[in-house]
User: Fold these one by one.
Assistant:
Number 1:
Amino acid sequence: MFLHNKQLIQPVNVGKPDARFGTYLLEQFGGATGELTAALQYWVQSFHVEDAGIRDMLQDIAIEEFSHLEMVGKLIAQHTSKLDQTKVYDAPLFKIKGGGPHFLDSQGSCWTAAYINEGGNVVRDLRANVAAEAGARQTYEALIHACEDEGTKKTLHHLLTREITHARMFMKALDSLGKLDDPFFGTIPPDDTVKLVFNLSKGEDVRGPWNEAPDFEYIANPEPEGGMPPAPINPDDEHAAPNGKAPGGKGKARSHA
Amino acid sequence: MFLHNKQLIQPVNVGKPDARFGTYLLEQFGGATGELTAALQYWVQSFHVEDAGIRDMLQDIAIEEFSHLEMVGKLIAQHTSKLDQTKVYDAPLFKIKGGGPHFLDSQGSCWTAAYINEGGNVVRDLRANVAAEAGARQTYEALIHACEDEGTKKTLHHLLTREITHARMFMKALDSLGKLDDPFFGTIPPDDTVKLVFNLSKGEDVRGPWNEAPDFEYIANPEPEGGMPPAPINPDDEHAAPNGKAPGGKGKARSHA
Amino acid sequence: MFLHNKQLIQPVNVGKPDARFGTYLLEQFGGATGELTAALQYWVQSFHVEDAGIRDMLQDIAIEEFSHLEMVGKLIAQHTSKLDQTKVYDAPLFKIKGGGPHFLDSQGSCWTAAYINEGGNVVRDLRANVAAEAGARQTYEALIHACEDEGTKKTLHHLLTREITHARMFMKALDSLGKLDDPFFGTIPPDDTVKLVFNLSKGEDVRGPWNEAPDFEYIANPEPEGGMPPAPINPDDEHAAPNGKAPGGKGKARSHA
Amino acid sequence: MFLHNKQLIQPVNVGKPDARFGTYLLEQFGGATGELTAALQYWVQSFHVEDAGIRDMLQDIAIEEFSHLEMVGKLIAQHTSKLDQTKVYDAPLFKIKGGGPHFLDSQGSCWTAAYINEGGNVVRDLRANVAAEAGARQTYEALIHACEDEGTKKTLHHLLTREITHARMFMKALDSLGKLDDPFFGTIPPDDTVKLVFNLSKGEDVRGPWNEAPDFEYIANPEPEGGMPPAPINPDDEHAAPNGKAPGGKGKARSHA
Amino acid sequence: MFLHNKQLIQPVNVGKPDARFGTYLLEQFGGATGELTAALQYWVQSFHVEDAGIRDMLQDIAIEEFSHLEMVGKLIAQHTSKLDQTKVYDAPLFKIKGGGPHFLDSQGSCWTAAYINEGGNVVRDLRANVAAEAGARQTYEALIHACEDEGTKKTLHHLLTREITHARMFMKALDSLGKLDDPFFGTIPPDDTVKLVFNLSKGEDVRGPWNEAPDFEYIANPEPEGGMPPAPINPDDEHAAPNGKAPGGKGKARSHA
Amino acid sequence: MFLHNKQLIQPVNVGKPDARFGTYLLEQFGGATGELTAALQYWVQSFHVEDAGIRDMLQDIAIEEFSHLEMVGKLIAQHTSKLDQTKVYDAPLFKIKGGGPHFLDSQGSCWTAAYINEGGNVVRDLRANVAAEAGARQTYEALIHACEDEGTKKTLHHLLTREITHARMFMKALDSLGKLDDPFFGTIPPDDTVKLVFNLSKGEDVRGPWNEAPDFEYIANPEPEGGMPPAPINPDDEHAAPNGKAPGGKGKARSHA
């Protein structure tokens, strides 16, 4: 059961409303790296994660992200509070669609659940969450660099901070499962190609710990090992006349190299 | 510059074509966790990553993922090679849209770049990649469990294995940057709330290393610290008459609690 | 600020898990008429609605819809709780993507904010909400008719009931603004065509109170009153040679009827 | 059967072409509240509505909306008729994609059928239509406020007017079914919670006719009545090693297969 | 101005309603190759095409496609006319969303304007239309092969026929511009690489008229001619500390191959 | 199996970086007419095309398009290489999402596989490809007209040229099948309406070779030949009480015209 307190979890005080900046802020309200993505991703994971502790953590953080979504929404509401003094060219999204937040990103694209990464395994979920936090943090940094209002910056700084906190929590949870630095999870062990690294992009190759012995075996000149696949034996158009012999066809005339 | 060898990087041999199973395989061709997502995500990152070694790694793995996308496509092509003997109800996607792979997921939804997670910082990118590999591995495991054809399973097992390899490579790259177990990156240090954990989902709370001292400070009963946000001072409809006084309005009659 | 209590707002007790039915239930979790749409629509409206009472109502109902989203999620979680005993063909969505709810509809399409209808005016918002409730109620009725589990039906019946309650609340709010039965709102009065009804679909015409005097003036045989629009005077391809005179062109030869 | 007369249903005369304003006009051509949404929504409803009169009304209005879509398209065509004198930065959408209308909104997002609200019941459909008209009217008002060309304004004013007419028609149709002010429809009566209103958003609560007796019973402090839901009993990853044994677990206790 | 006659342009008589087949028919109502795509594509082109004859042709065909969309809708309406006797598992889309047509494809995905191909030049438009007709024809053939109802087949056969007619019309229009067999159009002549064909996919190469002299010059072993592109000189994260030297970093240690 | 050479297939040298122009270039990286669409469309076709020569051609061109995608990506990377000197308002997409290419179009919309046109028949595929090349060429022309940097123009000119080359190759392949100027393909012959052209858009009709004898039979005043379709006999809401008689209904009162 959800509950709501009209007071904010942390303060939001915009000094100088700027509808243009409000447009950029949408990235964290209805964008890929935004608070809605985070809140819904962690919360939906909690339905299938069986570990009670991790499930509780996911719910705690999800609820905080909803509270952050509210803060970002309030930032946008304040930045569009003087919309009548804004030229349409400077903030067409709000002038046409109305002031305040919308579930769109800074480019006006609708939020989509395709942004969410979850399902089937707690390790997969937690890794997705570490990635989500990194994306959110990155966008907050970009917004802070683009921001000229101190009050807004202070709020964005807090939100950036919390993404670091959450990332640390997810890392701790992964570590408790022994999966922070172990790529394996699940029940199917890898086959014997697990150590091979293929140098498939040639020229100015640079080596590093991600392709060096003893962890990896570097294949400098990989060869195709799969042979030629069979040609399609049942053409898509199952009822088609042979190509080139269809009514009106001029026939085909080609030679093999 | 891209090059292609018509031979496959690893073998694909389907014993018994099954167009229904072909439908499920689409998840790894045109689905969220599929090879197209991986190939394009790693490759597009390589354009903005400045570290030459990590850039090379991203390109090497991206090219392998394109080669894996080809393998999944060949699996689907073989599984739909007897489509004329399949009832439409069993595989409507292929019967209506044609045999062979399409850039759709197992539910028939178009692939979208919204699946891709990248941008602005190499640490963010690498974390996104560890998550992408976990998602891909998870789907391969689900497909293997659902698969009855040994030849198909062998190919899927190889593809699952390679996701583990790539995950290990991305972890090594993160570790080389000191960022595998450090949630911080970028240039903006966190504020002083970075250690707080808020217990926002109440009831049957379970503690764990992700919310315990000394790394974290647990707030068992969080209070709103942001106060009441200001009400909208510039209504969306900037030219609107005051609500309830619009032409034809019956007026409003309400009391405050 | 959001808060969460792990206890449900109302009970969810599935008697006989059925992953196939779980697929249909997704329509109310991640579908167009589902609880996420309702929750986010009402809540995002609350940021720009200036009437404190209606804003409070929107937030109250939004929070209840989040709590209902949780209930639907729990229904789905229970219906997929025996997924290991389900054949992939019966519930491919869960078998491939994992058990429990996802932000997809019953056809596997991602939830999109394009489902949300809001912006710019409280009357527009409230009308959108009456419509949203009608859609949600309709889907619950369809689900109840398709459902064979009594426990599930009971929960769905409650959720259907609440959509009626909310619809009544939105109607009351519209009525308090004098806008339940008055099509006009905003500041721009209609022009003098406001009473005209055009019979543009001919044959077996049926009249009714929606096109009868004195409220309406019925135009049985409408004529175009706009004349011929000017032809494009600046072709799209602004640098194009005149059509038919491009290099290699055979010229054009056509007559006017 | 559709027919078309090249003359417009109402005049379109743009005084001073402005490709920037053309961009905003796209909102009513290929946007959520635009004429395509209205035309297709009403028309598709006509296929399943059994009441011959309401079906005829839906078709009449749908055809008018198609004619309005044409008018908006002509507005855009005229506003982009001097595109060769426009700087790319002022109207990149048209400069890159070509002049004239496209099925995109003012932010460049593709029109999607997710904007349409219809299905299964005539009351639901009519309520969706009242909402659609309100959205369309609201956008026309925003466009008129942003418009500096008198000829364009005159056309937009007519289009705004017709949305009011249609809204009135849909209201009359709802009223003829007794459903304009009655939230109930369909065959399943509500359960005994239908009068309850839950105060789930706390602080500065404001009461109004939408939550007052005798129509409603206000629950000032709602409690969860659903109890704790069962934990997932069948983990997503049905073959996974038991996660679930790690409540609060700090260490890792699992081995690789 | 649009007009509508409730009589159909051609007959629709379904002998034996089958909601499952109705699902497949959606591909031509709300799918990529469906009648809505065709109608809207040709019609929207007519706004920017300056040749009055071709513009008239586009409008004539567009209106016919709207009339065909109506026919497909009526087919679906009839196939779902006994939905109460259909099990939900056989036609979940209609059972959950309601009978009759919806703007979805056979997989339940919303129609999107991304299916439309048009803009900026009449030759480009006409080529897009030849392609659209080919796609539509292909899907009708697939539907006819999957269909067991003679009445439905007869209607589908007519619709397939008309796609051939339209394709011929578009070909004639292209030919009148000299562009049916001339790849060039527009105002920018090609550079001197226009005859080169690169053999970039190696193995079992097959030659044909599309890569043979004198029209083409075949490059059997293409080499990269673009050299190494410069590395990113301004990292994405413009304010980032040098990689590996960020706070907490362990430094990087890698060698060049 | 894919391979990659870090050298570019053709040179990319941007003289003066301009992040605004970089935004427009995205149209050919992640837009509808862009290189990703071309590469994936041709390549996915190669899985179901049975003609070995055409399959090889599709793969050769697909690989070149991937190499062109790389070139466009490098253009964008260079145009955003001085992003720290760019104001956010001039290039918000890159400032918020990071420099370098993304799989978005010039309006910030995610690339979607809905742009791809393929399936089921080689003639359909080749026609789709001729159309795809025309769209790509058109966008390159628009970009060249909007471009002020000579180095960028030179690269764009090469890319435009190659679209012409590919179009010629696809035309040759169609011609080898006798299908360049023959609208028919597949196995189902047209019915006897194949020569009819319906004048459905009235007023200022213009005739041309696309509707003249002997190829076509022009119907100046088409009549509906399909008669009235049956009304829905099984209302959507299969369990609904008759309209107007639902609980609370006021009854219906309407007369037939």
Number 2:
Amino acid sequence: MNPTACSLVDVTRLVRELDAFADARDWHRHHSPKNLAMALTGEVGELVELFQWQSEAESYDTARHPATARAVRDELADVLIYLVRLASVLEVDLDEAVRTKLVANARKYPAPQVPRP
Amino acid sequence: MNPTACSLVDVTRLVRELDAFADARDWHRHHSPKNLAMALTGEVGELVELFQWQSEAESYDTARHPATARAVRDELADVLIYLVRLASVLEVDLDEAVRTKLVANARKYPAPQVPRP
Amino acid sequence: MNPTACSLVDVTRLVRELDAFADARDWHRHHSPKNLAMALTGEVGELVELFQWQSEAESYDTARHPATARAVRDELADVLIYLVRLASVLEVDLDEAVRTKLVANARKYPAPQVPRP
Amino acid sequence: MNPTACSLVDVTRLVRELDAFADARDWHRHHSPKNLAMALTGEVGELVELFQWQSEAESYDTARHPATARAVRDELADVLIYLVRLASVLEVDLDEAVRTKLVANARKYPAPQVPRP
């Protein structure tokens, strides 16, 4: 793994869209990091509800099953939208944050050194 | 707003890194969508904990304050990592999902038509 | 504080109602602790949504405001129902658990010894 | 089911303990409903983390397995503590709320009328 070369995550254009969207609706004063963290929670709750009564095996079909295919895309999008908006309001670079975390994860969970066939 | 031109979100390289990371540790069988949705919940819980006793005004400084600057980046990264991993296992294109959702949001919350100075 | 005398929490009759309710609908196989923990998450998400755009000051009126009075009661009830059900399936005595936690909390956050007027 | 006779849930003494606890530490101003809803989220996140990599079958042993027996009790307690505290600050009667919700649930999910062996 070499997470230092080019960007792992590029959300620049989404950041700009969300900022313009909030601006046009005068939503900036509602979008404190505290409030956005709560909104993120709400969306994750809606996402989790899609999986709660499924078996693990069934859960792999959530995005293919007609009853949930659109819903799961919408909820994943909502979570990403609030996450990107929260990072943007906090002026956090998500690409840097993810890179740093992956390096820490690689140290915390070293891959087994056994040769793989 | 014109969310139809080029990609709003590009997580292609992160998807690949996470897949290689899980592969090297034989984690695929743990990474069912159901389990990943739960892991996402746990990380959002840790993120929210950083904001819970703050006022809204204080929450804007979370990424600047030495006591929380690294923690908030780590938790934002963890949420993004599990979200991208979940979408990847479900074979959902996050860019398409976000685009579709933004169009729906624009219809649901029309911007006021008054001219802005 | 003397949390050792009689019960702080009595949910015996609710446990019994929920068990009969699940039994009559053949829900036991769906009610694994893992699934109930997810259902709990979903309900907490719905509860949090009621507060997310409120100021702290406004949040005190949530149970009085006609638009949210019933909703907040319903969501609090849903969270409690899934929590009690989860503890019941795990055979955890919530009264014992709360007592032990309060003793630990009192040690972790000692009350200031200054005399209060 | 007859959820109208005596109380299904009695948390009166816990409400009083929590109020005294907050009072002794001058925590009332931190305990707005908005903040308590966030704290509840954080605790649910910690609870869910205990189950996230388990199979459904394994999850039934969480309160018996030495590695998780205390942790799951502590997290269940934390969720209950913040839930009861939140209801208390909102002046919501949890017993009434649960009763009303159970009646609604019985209407929403009628039990099958087939005789059971």
